[in-house]
């Protein structure tokens, strides 16, 4: 009769057998190639287990990299859009400056006029009325926006600010039927008035003489005569010119250069507040610095007028001499002529006679 519970080898014997077997396998694996097929087959099984155990970490790294890279790409994209818009705005002003003639010598001779202060704004709404062309931007009175301030996109002028709110503004587009802007043909300087037609893809030049030198394809730029829009910015391109011998005026239609229905990021232009004389002086200084190979000087918005300090020094210098005080005309002379060095010695003989 067999016992109910059979007794096997003890734990020590089992451990010793396993140790001997392990040593034997290591020796065989190191000395011979008998176990190479077995190792290759086991590597296939272990590779799947490695992949499964490493799956959570790889998923976490993938999700983290996706969210991180997306945030960085969005930020970089916004930065590049802003820089691109600024560069395109400067390029269109530079192109207009290089094509102007003697009638715009102030724009041609002054490199400082290109560096007008601008601020980027974003379109956040549109007027639902189909008979008015107005948009809303995210810059308002708190941001320094003023009524009548020009607004342009990367291609040309779009309109002007007509209503101010603390944090937003309403812009009237060029194509509105109530809007007009003085323009000139960039090719020959012919002046005209471009008015909106209610069509976002069309402007009309009114009261243009039938014999006027204007052709299809001419670029219309702002003339600056209305003191509202800066001169030299693209406005429209002539699309159609109809001459009628029985009418005194020609029918001229143009297409706005700005993408009125597609632009989202806009530029608010802050015009220069300097007088024409100050702008001419600053332009001469900038041109001289450019000829000398020096960097152009930084011109502030308003240049203070120089005050001659010689008028305040002359009375103090001649105060001891009574004869000099009795001649106020010498005080009004400019500094080079108002430095009479001979008057104090002239007072010395007078005092000498009194002592004698």
UniProtKB/TrEMBL annotation:
Composition skew (Low complexity), residue ranges: 324-341
Transmembrane segments: none
NCBIfam families membership: mreC
Region (Disordered): 278-304, 324-356
Homology family: Belongs to the MreC family.
Gene3D superfamilies recorded: Rod shape-determining protein MreC, domain 1, Rod shape-determining protein MreC, domain 2
Domain Rod shape-determining protein MreC beta-barrel core: start-end pairs: 124-269
Pfam families: MreC
InterPro entries from the UniProt entry: Cell/Rod_1 (IPR042177), Cell/Rod_MreC_2 (IPR042175), MreC (IPR007221), MreC_beta-barrel_core (IPR055342)
Keywords: Cell shape
Gene of this entry: mreC
Domain of life (superkingdom): Bacteria
Record's protein name: Cell shape-determining protein MreC
Keyword ATP-binding in record: no
């Amino acid at each position: 009769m067999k016992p109910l519970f059979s007794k096997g080898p003890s734990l020590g014997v089992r451990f010793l057998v396993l140790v001997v077997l392990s040593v034997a396998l290591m020796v065989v694996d190191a000395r011979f190639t008998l176990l190479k097929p077995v190792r290759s087959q086991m590597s296939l099984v272990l590779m799947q287990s490695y992949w499964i155990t490493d799956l959570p970490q790889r998923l976490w790294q993938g999700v983290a990299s996706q969210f991180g890279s997306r945030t960085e790409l969005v930020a970089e994209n916004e930065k590049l859009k802003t820089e691109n818009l600024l560069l395109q705005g400067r390029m269109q002003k530079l192109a207009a400056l290089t094509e102007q003639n003697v009638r715009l010598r102030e724009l041609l001779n002054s490199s400082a006029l290109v560096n007008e202060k601008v601020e980027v704004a974003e379109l956040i709404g549109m007027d639902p009325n189909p008979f008015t062309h107005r948009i809303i931007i995210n810059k308002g009175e708190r941001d320094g926006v003023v009524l009548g301030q020009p607004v342009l996109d990367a291609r040309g002028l779009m309109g002007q600010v007509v209503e101010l709110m603390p944090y937003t503004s309403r812009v009237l587009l060029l194509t509105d039927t109530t809007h007009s802007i003085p323009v000139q043909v960039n090719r020959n300087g012919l002046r005209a008035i471009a008015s909106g037609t209610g069509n976002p893809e069309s402007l009309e030049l009114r009261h243009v003489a039938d014999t006027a030198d204007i052709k299809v394809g001419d670029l219309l730029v702002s003339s600056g005569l209305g003191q509202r829009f800066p001169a030299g910015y693209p406005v429209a391109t002539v699309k159609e010119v109809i001459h009628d011998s029985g009418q005194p005026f020609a029918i001229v239609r143009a297409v706005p250069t700005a993408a009125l229905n597609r632009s989202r990021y806009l530029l608010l232009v802050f015009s220069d507040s300097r007088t024409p004389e100050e702008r001419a002086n600053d332009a001469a200084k900038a041109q001289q610095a450019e000829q000398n190979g020096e960097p152009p000087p930084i011109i502030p918005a308003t240049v203070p007028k120089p005050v001659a300090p010689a008028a305040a020094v002359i009375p103090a210098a001649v105060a001891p001499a009574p004869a000099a005080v009795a001649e106020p005309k010498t005080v009004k002379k400019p500094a080079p002529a108002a430095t009479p060095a001979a008057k104090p010695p002239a007072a010395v003989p007078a005092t000498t006679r009194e002592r004698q």
